[in-house]
Amino acid sequence: MVLFESGFEPSGGYADWTSKEGLDSLTIITTDPHHGYYHASAYCNGGNEGEQAYLYKTFTSSTTVYVRAYFKFKTRVPSAGKSYNMLNIGNGFNDIAAARIYSDNGTTAAFQMRYLNGDDTYGYETYAYISVQLNTWYCVEIKVVVSGSAGEARIYVDGNLIMSAISLNNDYFGNANSIMAGENYSSGTDDHTIYFDCVKVDTSYIGLDLVEPEGDETFFEPAKLDSDPSTAGWGEPEAGILWYNKTEGVFRYWSGGTIKTWSTE
User: What b/e readout covers 213-224, taking b as 16+ CB neighbours within 10 angstroms?
Assistant: First the structure.
């Protein structure tokens, strides 16, 4: 069930959000949308640690919540030992899980997950196998299951599960009823900009956004295929199937920031 969705269309505003938070700059612009015409831009000037510029949204409380958004990191990665905190699921302003990028050297950055486990106690997991690139759109999705003993926190990037924590005690604040997107907490003092777009909250997995098909092409959901194409000798796709072209007999899918083709050839 969809709980909230915002691509900042068609008016270029954020009236559908609960509030804009932080003392730094949060604007809706047309410079480089993931798709559509508008996107959000969070800018922190680096004057202080803990700077914030984000949008906040509350929704119907649930024990299981997914939030998906697209992010592009401009300017620079965090300085050594620091992080940008761009997407959160919480109860009010209290975090249950967050997606961040973290740098241990100030030159390269990796995705990191922060998750509640105990009474206002947090764990961290860093995924070192993706080096976050500037000026590249990433699809980032968080899953949270709230429980006193069987809680979960998971992060997907470009449709791939990269981090998970299970058997959590993460009901200290209550069920999930809010998200924060933008820059919720910059732990360094570097000026930086984060673009974001296509935000969606659901009680089920969301995945990559579909793009408009061209010609004789049909959208479909991989989970609802009548049969597994791999059984017909197709082999396994990479990730993020978008649509099927009946004329060409190929699937197109999203991988590594580009649309690719998967066929029997």
Answer: eeeebeeeebee
Among 120, 1, 157, smallest CA distance to 64 is for: 1
Closest C-alpha to 143, from 130, 162, 128: 162
Q: What are the φ and ψ backbone dihedral angles of 189, each rounded to 5 degrees?
A: -125, 40
Residue 219 near residue 87, CB atoms below 8 Å:
no
CA distance 70 to 61: 23
pLDDT tens digits, one per residue of 163-172: 999 999 999 9
pTM, two decimals, is 0.80
**pLDDT tens per residue across span 72-123:** 999 899 999 999 999 999 999 999 999 999 999 999 999 999 999 999 999 9
Q: What is the CATH number of domain 2-202?
A: 2.60.120.200
Spell out the domain ranges in the chain: 2-202, 217-262
